[in-house]
Design a protein that fits this description.
The chain has 269 residues and is an alpha+beta fold. The chain has nine helices and ten strands.
């Protein structure tokens, strides 16, 4: 049974939000508006798409209560979130909203998700392989960087698997080389490790042609682990493998990696 603060978010929506490369408040605004529609019986997200093109209105104070920073007393988050989406549209990025406007008195927002976003939000009954996550907006409100939110959505989507694993929503082509962003992603993993009670193993994968990190695999290790010997820790690695245990990250030396080959948990054999 889901919590009252959760809503169902498909992998296609998660991917769309990742591609949009939004700021913290841009992500909070998107998740807040989606939760608002999902939690109101009289609203239907499908009505936002053609041919109805319905707009919905919500109080700014309601959005702040949904995904704003704890104790927020003004609408700065709303203004910054709207600016992030305005900039996204101006740059021709992946559209989240087709319509987003704040009332003259500043207390309400009228919005409409884009047709693409609406299509992505719907679960396909004939596609049993499609993934989804139950996103907790209370958790979103406690996160303080875009990377934390992006890591969170991928982690909760993968956590129900027997061997939970995902790839970081990062690429050197879109942002920066792994060495430049490694610390910020590890910080995100540390934060989510504490919040979700999970341990992580981050394994950079190196492209044989360029010798650069092309993607980073994240394995989730629960307290009762299903990972078997020689399945959790790789046999060898061209880049440092990192563990995040009880909210603390560290890089493993080659000798430490070899010692852990038969381990089934991140913190013990």
């Amino acid at each position: 049974m889901s919590k009252l603060s959760e809503y169902l978010c498909t992998e296609r929506v998660v991917t769309r939000l990742e591609k949009a490369d939004l700021s913290l408040d841009g992500l909070r605004l998107a998740h807040g508006c989606h939760f608002y529609v999902d939690s109101r019986r009289e609203l239907n997200i499908q009505n936002m798409a053609a041919p109805k093109r319905a707009n919905f209105t919500v109080r700014c104070s309601t959005l702040l209560a949904i995904t704003g920073s704890p104790g927020a007393k003004d609408y700065d988050m709303i203004a910054r979130g709207m600016k992030a989406h305005t900039n996204l549209q101006a740059q021709g990025g992946t559209a989240i909203f087709d319509f987003l406007k704040r009332r003259e008195d500043g207390r309400k927002i009228t919005f409409r998700f884009s047709d693409g976003y609406v299509r992505d939000s719907l679960r396909r009954s004939n596609d049993r392989t499609s993934k989804f996550a139950m996103i907790d907006v209370d958790t979103i409100g406690r996160l303080s960087t875009p990377k934390q939110i992006l890591f969170y959505t991928r982690a909760v989507m993968a956590q129900a698997s027997t061997f939970p694993m995902f790839t970081l929503p990062w690429s050197a082509e879109r942002t920066a080389p792994w060495r430049d962003v490694k610390r910020s992603w590890l910080s995100a993993a540390e934060r989510l490790s504490k919040l979700l009670g999970q341990d992580y193993l981050l394994e950079p994968m190196v492209d044989a042609e360029t010798d650069e990190v092309s993607r980073v695999k994240v394995k989730i290790v629960k307290k009762v682990s299903a990972w078997g010997p020689e399945k959790l820790f790789p046999r060898q690695a061209d880049q440092s493998v990192c563990t995040v245990i009880s909210g603390k990250a560290r890089s493993l030396s080659k000798s430490e990696l070899q010692e852990r080959r038969k381990w089934t948990r991140a913190d013990s054999p």
